[in-house]
Amino acid sequence: MMHRILNDLLMAFSSEGSGRVALTASASGTKIPEERFIQIVIPTWGSADNILILPEPVPGKIVIVAGAATGGELRSSAPATVAINGGTGAAAESAVAANQMVVAICESSSSWKAITIAGNGTVAGLEAAA
User: Fold this and answer.
1) Which residues contact 18 (CB under 8 A, 6 or more apart)?
2) pLDDT in tens, 9-33
3) What is residue 53's predicted lDDT score, i.e. its pLDDT?
4) CB 116 within 8 A of CB 79
5) 85 backbone φψ class: left, alpha, beta (φ>0; ψ -120 to 50)
6) Which conformational region is residue 59 in: left (phi greater than 0), alpha (psi within -120 to 50 degrees), or beta?
7) What is the average per-residue pLDDT within 35-61?
8) What is the C-alpha to C-alpha distance for residues 24 and 117, in angstroms, rounded to an integer?
9) CA-CA distance, 62 to 75, in Å (whole number)?
10) Pairing between strand 62-65 and 83-84?
11) pLDDT in the model for residue 2
């Protein structure tokens, strides 16, 4: 198991690794792939109202969304029952500011915890989904 985790970490941060994925967010939501336990997403938001959807919750899964010139929205795969920082709701989502990196870690089958890293390196909690 440890070998798999280390391999996933190396792949996630390699520019050639399959743990790195470029995605274009959409108004209806673009799902982040499920395949990797640890992955980095290079987003193109296009609009602050466009959405990226986290993978199905698997405890320990890590998704890193790189900062981009335009921010957007982050939503869980089942926003009414899978929380982001304690927030749930029929279409609940968390706003991601421009140039803000998000590190989301799945805590349980019903909860993601997420922090942000601003362009200047300041770390804070991502707003709860609402």
Assistant:
1) 11, 35, 36
2) 666 555 555 578 899 999 999 999 9
3) 98
4) no
5) left
6) beta
7) 93
8) 21
9) 15
10) unpaired
11) 55
Q: What are phi and psi of 9, to 5 degrees?
A: -60, -45
| 3-state SS track over the chain | CHHHHHHHHHHHCCCCCCCEEEEECECCCEECCCCCCEEEEEEECCCCCCEEECCCCCCCCEEEECCCCCCEEEECCCCCCCEECCECCCCCCEEECCCCEEEEEEEECCEEEEEEECCCCCEEECCCCC
In the chain, the amino acid numbered 53 is: I
Instruction: Fill in the amino acid letter for 91.
Output: A
First to last CA, the chain: 35
Averaged pLDDT for residues 104-121? 95
Neighbouring C-alpha atoms within 13 Å toward the C-beta of 56: 2
Distance CA 75, CA 84 (A): 8
Token reading at 64: 């890193």
Output the average pLDDT for the chain. Answer: 89
